[in-house]
Design a protein that fits this description.
The protein has 120 residues and is mainly beta. The protein is 0% helix and 58% strand. It is built from no helices and eleven strands. The strands form two sheets. Strands 2, 4, 5, 6, 9, 10 and 11 form a seven-stranded mixed sheet that branches. It has a four-stranded antiparallel sheet with strand order 1-3-8-7, with no helix packed on it.
Length: 120
């Protein structure tokens, strides 16, 4: 069974950096594109960033210039580099990855989420 393994979350002081990773647990799922979402307490889940199969990235206005989405095909992993973190970046972050299962079937998997806490 394929799962997305998320890592890199935690607590950091304002102004600091974290790198989130989202990897496929199985080699039968090849990640082509990915997206990162977040949900803060009392707020709706929002799209933070995505990277397409062609490597094009898009960002929410609130994170432009501070966050960078990337993909390492060899490691079958997508990343979210977060810099200049602010208190308002505190949220549960989720990854989503789309690709091919066993090289033929398009599919989307979603991670379980990880907490990112930015403290003063």
């Amino acid at each position: 069974q394929v799962q997305l393994v998320e890592s890199g979350g935690g607590e950091v002081q304002a102004g600091g950096s974290l790198r989130l990773s989202c990897a496929s647990s199985g080699s039968i799922f090849s990640i082509n594109a990915g997206a990162w979402y977040r949900q803060a307490p009392g707020k709706q889940r929002e799209l933070v960033a995505n990277i397409t199969s062609g490597g094009v990235t898009n960002y929410a206005d609130s994170v432009k210039g501070r966050f960078t989405a990337s993909r390492d095909s060899a490691k079958n992993t997508v990343y979210l580099q977060m810099s200049s973190l602010r208190l308002e970046d505190t949220a549960v972050y989720y990854c989503s990855a789309e690709g091919l299962l066993a090289g033929t079937s398009p599919i989307v998997y979603r991670g379980r989420g990880m907490q990112v806490t930015v403290s003063a």
